[in-house]
Amino acid sequence: MRERAFCAFLRRIRPSNISDDRRPHRRGNIMHTQDLSAWTHSHVFDTGNHAAERGTRLVMLITAITMVVEIAAGLWFNSMALLADGWHMSSHALAIGLSAFAYAAARRYAGDARFAFGTWKIEVLAGFASAIFLLGIAALMAGASVERLFAPQAIHYKEAMAVTAIGLLVNLGCALILGGAHHHGHDHGHDHHGHSHGDGHGHSHHHDINLRAAYLHVLADAATSVLALLALAGGWWLGWGWLDPVMGIVGAVLVGRWAFGLLRQSGTVLLDREMDHAVVEEVREVLAGFGHGEDGTRVTDLHVWRVGKQQFACIACLVTHDAQLTPQRVRQALSVHEELVHVTVEISHCDHGPIAAHPARHAHG
What we know:
The protein is mostly helical. It is about 55% helix and about 10% strand.
């Protein structure tokens, strides 16, 4: 009885205690049900690469099998070059496995609203992790090879060369598999109003970083196999036993250099350090078109970052005396650049004297 009386009391006082800013917005007695679809859009900025996902899964399986064979053969035939090749391939098996997993995870969580700008960077993160692991493998290869230089052991050259040749053929086959998928993401270049994109800081980085990581892993492993064959041939025919560990060191340096390159490329994207990208300069050129003399529009803040292989997001803050300038006009002007898939514009109208020049290049990035 006491609970029912209390509930009745709440029903009587509730309408009068709800402040206006907490009540549903109504027009007369009709709830405001404006369709917002015209102002919203999907945050799935990158559609993935299904061919690459299938290719990486297949190559991961092939690489793992070959890795086991080469390591076992290296131990059996006592070849440092063959062991180095097998260890190198183990890093490739893990890295390519990470690539395959990243594609699957990015696809699975593509519609998850917790990812504010989509899931594409899961793929980039896989490339970054692969590079870190590869640096460790390179250090192990170098250490073991140096040890063999000072403590050489007998090598069964003929058998080791046969296994290495098989590994090389496997690597070339895997390169062909990934090369087919890589072709779909190859940079064909763009031209927007006279702005041609080529190499350097242009749009040449449109490659799928995750696929590129897997592809270069396979190519680097093929190069290591070639070095192993040279080392084994020199040791067998010329008696240069020292060539085997030396080639192991050369292979370690090759892997390390490649790992640093991938680390730098993926880290640049993960840290959004791309304010020197060509598309940023193009955005500045478009925004500069709204400036008219000393009283014109100025850019006070600009942020551009990558949200997909070829897609960018942009936040631009402008201050202006132009009462007719709207965010819609700015977004329409920027729409000529198809790579800008998420644009946010903030405009502040200044009513106190001319606006001091504020170079766009010094905008925060």
